[in-house]
Amino acid sequence: MLPQHRRRARIVFTDSAAKQLENITSEAGIHALDRALVVVSVDPEVGEPIPGSAVGPQLREYADEVERVRLLYWVTALKTVVVVAYLEV
């Protein structure tokens, strides 16, 4: 029997997150972001919910302590991950 493979979530960026990405110039920065995006695309629920109002999407935060990166995002009903911000810490 073949192992079950889950489909990865599609990743999209808000305009502000896309502008942040344009400013990444180092290969290490691109690698760190790529690693975090892969983790979130495989399991969109991996991030911690950010407390807030019940109106609008539930923001989540994923922190990769190895790469020292944080992603702020929400997950749509169709499991698309919308990245709001990318932060290096």
How do you describe this structure in short?
The chain is an alpha+beta fold and 89 residues long.
Structural class computed from helices and strand pairing = alpha+beta
Secondary-structure element order, as H and E?
Answer: EHHEEEE
Strand order of the largest sheet: 1-5-4-3-2
Largest sheet properties? 5 strands, mixed
Oligomer: single chain
pLDDT averaged over residues: 85
Terminal-residue CA separation: 43 Å
Radius of gyration: 14 Å
Query: How large a portion of the residues is in β-strands, by DSSP E?
Result: 25-35%
Describe the structure.
This protein is of the alpha+beta class. It has two helices and five strands; from the N terminus they run E-H-H-E-E-E-E. It is globular, with a radius of gyration of 14 Å.
How do the helices and strands line up, and which of them pair or pack?
Elements: E1 11-13, H1 15-22, H2 27-42, E2 48-49, E3 60-64, E4 69-75, E5 81-88
Parallel strand pairs: 1-5
Antiparallel strand pairs: 2-3, 3-4, 4-5
